Protein backbone atom coordinates (compact mmCIF):
# COMPACT_ATOMS: atom_id res chain seq x y z
CA UNK A 1 0.00 0.00 0.00
CA UNK A 2 1.56 3.29 -1.07
CA UNK A 3 -0.83 5.70 0.62
CA UNK A 4 -1.95 6.47 4.14
CA UNK A 5 -5.43 7.46 5.33
CA UNK A 6 -6.19 8.45 8.90
CA UNK A 7 -9.60 8.79 10.60
CA UNK A 8 -9.94 9.63 14.28
CA UNK A 9 -13.14 9.68 16.36
CA UNK A 10 -13.05 10.75 19.98
CA UNK A 11 -15.96 10.05 22.33
CA UNK A 12 -15.15 11.07 25.89
CA UNK A 13 -11.52 10.17 25.54
CA UNK A 14 -11.91 7.07 23.33
CA UNK A 15 -10.21 7.00 19.93
CA UNK A 16 -10.22 5.00 16.70
CA UNK A 17 -7.63 5.43 13.98
CA UNK A 18 -7.28 3.78 10.60
CA UNK A 19 -3.95 4.06 8.83
CA UNK A 20 -2.52 2.24 5.86
CA UNK A 21 0.78 1.81 7.65
CA UNK A 22 0.20 2.40 11.33
CA UNK A 23 -2.40 3.29 13.94
CA UNK A 24 -4.49 1.90 16.78
CA UNK A 25 -6.45 -0.04 14.17
CA UNK A 26 -4.68 -0.98 10.98
CA UNK A 27 -5.25 -3.44 8.19
CA UNK A 28 -2.48 -5.08 6.24
CA UNK A 29 -2.72 -7.74 3.55
CA UNK A 30 -0.56 -10.08 5.63
CA UNK A 31 -0.64 -8.79 9.15
CA UNK A 32 -3.13 -6.82 11.23
CA UNK A 33 -4.35 -6.16 14.72
CA UNK A 34 -7.51 -4.83 16.30
CA UNK A 35 -7.82 -3.48 19.81
CA UNK A 36 -11.07 -2.64 21.56
CA UNK A 37 -11.18 -1.36 25.11
CA UNK A 38 -14.47 -1.39 27.05
CA UNK A 39 -14.68 -1.32 30.81
CA UNK A 40 -11.10 -2.17 31.77
CA UNK A 41 -11.01 -4.71 28.95
CA UNK A 42 -9.33 -5.31 25.62
CA UNK A 43 -9.54 -7.60 22.62
CA UNK A 44 -6.62 -8.33 20.33
CA UNK A 45 -6.52 -10.46 17.20
CA UNK A 46 -3.52 -11.12 14.94
CA UNK A 47 -4.40 -12.08 11.37
CA UNK A 48 -1.02 -13.66 10.54
CA UNK A 49 -1.93 -16.89 12.29
CA UNK A 50 -0.65 -15.97 15.74
CA UNK A 51 -3.55 -14.64 17.74
CA UNK A 52 -4.31 -13.79 21.31
CA UNK A 53 -7.83 -13.17 22.56
CA UNK A 54 -8.68 -11.69 25.93
CA UNK A 55 -12.02 -10.26 26.95
CA UNK A 56 -12.36 -8.22 30.09
CA UNK A 57 -15.83 -7.37 31.36
CA UNK A 58 -16.74 -5.95 34.72
CA UNK A 59 -14.67 -8.48 36.66
CA UNK A 60 -11.54 -8.63 34.51
CA UNK A 61 -11.95 -12.28 33.47
CA UNK A 62 -13.56 -13.72 30.37
CA UNK A 63 -15.75 -16.36 32.02
CA UNK A 64 -16.53 -14.61 35.29
CA UNK A 65 -20.30 -14.02 35.67
CA UNK A 66 -21.44 -10.47 36.33
CA UNK A 67 -22.79 -9.77 39.77
CA UNK A 68 -26.61 -9.54 39.65
CA UNK A 69 -28.20 -7.21 42.21
CA UNK A 70 -30.61 -8.91 44.60
CA UNK A 71 -33.53 -6.80 43.32
CA UNK A 72 -33.26 -8.40 39.85
CA UNK A 73 -33.05 -12.01 41.02
CA UNK A 74 -36.15 -14.11 40.31
CA UNK A 75 -37.24 -16.42 43.14
CA UNK A 76 -37.62 -20.07 42.24
CA UNK A 77 -41.17 -20.12 43.61
CA UNK A 78 -43.68 -17.28 43.73
CA UNK A 79 -46.66 -18.01 46.00
CA UNK A 80 -50.10 -17.12 44.60
CA UNK A 81 -53.31 -16.95 46.61
CA UNK A 82 -56.61 -17.39 44.74
CA UNK A 83 -59.07 -15.34 46.77
CA UNK A 84 -62.06 -15.33 44.45
CA UNK A 85 -63.29 -16.86 41.20
CA UNK A 86 -65.87 -16.11 38.54
CA UNK A 87 -66.37 -18.16 35.40
CA UNK A 88 -68.41 -19.15 32.39
CA UNK A 89 -67.48 -22.63 31.21
CA UNK A 90 -69.11 -25.21 28.92
CA UNK A 91 -71.51 -27.52 30.70
CA UNK A 92 -73.39 -24.74 32.50
CA UNK A 93 -70.52 -24.05 34.92
CA UNK A 94 -70.88 -20.53 36.36
CA UNK A 95 -69.10 -20.64 39.73
CA UNK A 96 -66.62 -22.61 41.83
CA UNK A 97 -69.33 -24.86 43.28
CA UNK A 98 -70.47 -25.87 39.79
CA UNK A 99 -66.88 -26.56 38.78
CA UNK A 100 -66.22 -28.69 41.86
CA UNK A 101 -69.36 -30.75 41.30
CA UNK A 102 -68.51 -31.18 37.61
CA UNK A 103 -65.01 -32.50 38.39
CA UNK A 104 -66.08 -34.77 41.25
CA UNK A 105 -68.80 -36.35 39.11
CA UNK A 106 -66.46 -36.63 36.11
CA UNK A 107 -68.76 -34.58 33.93
CA UNK A 108 -68.46 -34.12 30.18
CA UNK A 109 -69.30 -30.69 28.73
CA UNK A 110 -69.28 -31.89 25.12
CA UNK A 111 -72.52 -31.21 23.29
CA UNK A 112 -74.07 -30.59 19.86
CA UNK A 113 -73.42 -27.30 18.08
CA UNK A 114 -76.25 -24.88 19.00
CA UNK A 115 -78.42 -23.92 16.04
CA UNK A 116 -78.12 -20.22 16.89
CA UNK A 117 -74.34 -20.35 16.33
CA UNK A 118 -74.20 -21.56 12.74
CA UNK A 119 -75.70 -24.23 10.51
CA UNK A 120 -73.46 -27.18 11.28
CA UNK A 121 -75.03 -29.28 8.51
CA UNK A 122 -73.59 -26.89 5.93
CA UNK A 123 -70.03 -27.52 7.16
CA UNK A 124 -70.07 -31.10 8.44
CA UNK A 125 -68.39 -33.84 6.43
CA UNK A 126 -67.67 -37.29 7.85
CA UNK A 127 -64.71 -37.78 5.50
CA UNK A 128 -62.83 -34.65 6.58
CA UNK A 129 -63.09 -32.93 3.21
CA UNK A 130 -61.01 -29.71 3.04
CA UNK A 131 -63.02 -26.70 4.15
CA UNK A 132 -65.42 -28.77 6.26
CA UNK A 133 -65.80 -29.88 9.89
CA UNK A 134 -65.53 -33.55 10.83
CA UNK A 135 -67.68 -33.32 13.96
CA UNK A 136 -71.08 -31.93 14.90
CA UNK A 137 -70.16 -31.50 18.55
CA UNK A 138 -68.06 -29.12 20.58
CA UNK A 139 -67.77 -27.27 23.89
CA UNK A 140 -70.06 -24.25 23.92
CA UNK A 141 -71.42 -21.70 26.38
CA UNK A 142 -74.97 -22.74 25.60
CA UNK A 143 -76.47 -21.12 28.71
CA UNK A 144 -75.25 -17.57 27.99
CA UNK A 145 -77.50 -15.01 26.30
CA UNK A 146 -75.07 -12.59 24.67
CA UNK A 147 -77.89 -10.15 23.85
CA UNK A 148 -78.54 -9.45 27.54
CA UNK A 149 -76.17 -7.11 29.34
CA UNK A 150 -76.78 -4.90 32.38
CA UNK A 151 -75.57 -1.51 31.15
CA UNK A 152 -76.51 0.23 34.41
CA UNK A 153 -73.48 -1.27 36.16
CA UNK A 154 -70.96 0.28 33.78
CA UNK A 155 -70.00 3.62 32.27
CA UNK A 156 -71.13 2.89 28.71
CA UNK A 157 -73.87 4.14 26.41
CA UNK A 158 -76.21 1.89 24.44
CA UNK A 159 -74.37 2.85 21.24
CA UNK A 160 -71.07 1.65 22.71
CA UNK A 161 -72.58 -1.57 24.06
CA UNK A 162 -73.98 -2.37 20.61
CA UNK A 163 -70.38 -2.63 19.33
CA UNK A 164 -69.05 -4.44 22.38
CA UNK A 165 -67.28 -7.77 21.86
CA UNK A 166 -69.09 -10.57 23.76
CA UNK A 167 -65.71 -11.35 25.34
CA UNK A 168 -65.76 -7.90 26.94
CA UNK A 169 -69.33 -8.36 28.16
CA UNK A 170 -68.55 -11.70 29.78
CA UNK A 171 -65.31 -10.43 31.31
CA UNK A 172 -67.03 -7.45 32.92
CA UNK A 173 -69.61 -9.74 34.52
CA UNK A 174 -67.16 -12.45 35.56
CA UNK A 175 -64.65 -10.01 37.09
CA UNK A 176 -67.44 -8.48 39.17
CA UNK A 177 -68.44 -11.95 40.36
CA UNK A 178 -64.81 -12.74 41.23
CA UNK A 179 -64.62 -9.63 43.44
CA UNK A 180 -67.87 -10.58 45.14
CA UNK A 181 -66.72 -14.19 45.57
CA UNK A 182 -63.57 -12.92 47.29
CA UNK A 183 -65.61 -10.63 49.55
CA UNK A 184 -63.77 -7.64 48.12
CA UNK A 185 -65.83 -4.50 47.67
CA UNK A 186 -63.26 -1.76 48.15
CA UNK A 187 -61.30 -2.24 44.94
CA UNK A 188 -61.81 1.02 43.04
CA UNK A 189 -58.72 3.21 42.79
CA UNK A 190 -56.44 0.46 44.12
CA UNK A 191 -53.16 -0.77 42.60
CA UNK A 192 -54.73 -3.88 41.08
CA UNK A 193 -53.55 -5.31 37.76
CA UNK A 194 -55.78 -6.60 34.97
CA UNK A 195 -54.23 -9.31 32.79
CA UNK A 196 -56.30 -11.05 30.11
CA UNK A 197 -55.43 -13.87 27.71
CA UNK A 198 -57.54 -14.31 24.58
CA UNK A 199 -57.44 -17.05 21.95
CA UNK A 200 -59.67 -16.02 19.03
CA UNK A 201 -60.97 -12.80 17.47
CA UNK A 202 -64.31 -13.96 16.07
CA UNK A 203 -66.08 -10.68 16.78
CA UNK A 204 -63.40 -8.69 14.97
CA UNK A 205 -63.60 -11.01 11.96
CA UNK A 206 -67.37 -10.53 11.77
CA UNK A 207 -67.09 -6.74 12.05
CA UNK A 208 -64.42 -6.56 9.35
CA UNK A 209 -66.57 -8.27 6.72
CA UNK A 210 -68.36 -5.02 5.89
CA UNK A 211 -65.67 -2.43 5.15
CA UNK A 212 -68.31 0.27 4.83
CA UNK A 213 -69.63 -0.31 8.33
CA UNK A 214 -67.89 2.14 10.60
CA UNK A 215 -68.89 3.55 13.98
CA UNK A 216 -67.16 5.65 16.68
CA UNK A 217 -66.87 2.68 19.07
CA UNK A 218 -65.88 0.05 16.53
CA UNK A 219 -62.16 -0.11 17.35
CA UNK A 220 -62.49 -0.30 21.14
CA UNK A 221 -65.39 -2.69 20.76
CA UNK A 222 -63.65 -5.37 18.71
CA UNK A 223 -59.87 -5.26 19.26
CA UNK A 224 -58.32 -7.77 21.67
CA UNK A 225 -55.96 -5.25 23.29
CA UNK A 226 -58.99 -3.52 24.82
CA UNK A 227 -59.99 -6.50 26.99
CA UNK A 228 -57.64 -5.87 29.90
CA UNK A 229 -57.97 -2.10 29.54
CA UNK A 230 -61.77 -2.28 29.60
CA UNK A 231 -61.67 -4.11 32.93
CA UNK A 232 -59.20 -1.62 34.40
CA UNK A 233 -61.21 1.39 33.20
CA UNK A 234 -64.68 0.27 34.24
CA UNK A 235 -63.57 -0.89 37.70
CA UNK A 236 -60.97 1.87 38.19
CA UNK A 237 -58.07 -0.53 38.70
CA UNK A 238 -54.83 1.46 38.72
CA UNK A 239 -52.50 -1.48 38.09
CA UNK A 240 -49.28 -2.51 39.88
CA UNK A 241 -46.69 0.24 40.22
Please provide a written account of the structure:
The chain has 241 residues and is mainly alpha-helical. Among the domains are: 83-143, no CATH class; 145-241, no CATH class. 21% of the residues lie in helices and 5% in strands. It contains 6 helices and 4 strands; from the N terminus they run ββαββααααα. It has helices at residues 96-104, 158-162, 166-181, 202-207, 218-222, 226-234; strands at residues 33-36, 43-46, 111-112, 137-138. The strands form 2 sheets. A two-stranded antiparallel ribbon has the order 1-2. Strands 3-4 form a two-stranded antiparallel sheet. A hairpin with a 6-residue loop joins β1 and β2. α3 packs across α6 (226-234). Mean pLDDT is 75; it is low at 1-61.
Strand fraction band? under 5%
Main beta-sheet strand count, sense and barrel state: 2 strands, antiparallel
| Low-pLDDT stretches | 1-61
Mean pLDDT: 75
Spatially, the strands of the biggest sheet line up as 1-2
The N- and C-terminal alpha carbons lie at a distance of 62 Å
What is the share of helical residues?
Answer: 10-25%
| Oligomer kind | single chain
The assigned structural class equals mainly alpha
Total count of strands: 4
The Rg value, from CA coordinates, equals 32 Å
Number of helices: 6
Shape: globular
Secondary-structure element series: EEHEEHHHHH
Amino acid sequence: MNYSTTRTTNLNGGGHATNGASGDHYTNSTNGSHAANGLNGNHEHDRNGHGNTHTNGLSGHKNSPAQVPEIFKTPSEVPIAICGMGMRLPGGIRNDADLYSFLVNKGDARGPTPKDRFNIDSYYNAHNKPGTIITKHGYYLDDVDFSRFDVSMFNMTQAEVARLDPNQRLLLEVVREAFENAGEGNFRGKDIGSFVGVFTEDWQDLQNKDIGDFAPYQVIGKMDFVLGNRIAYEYDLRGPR
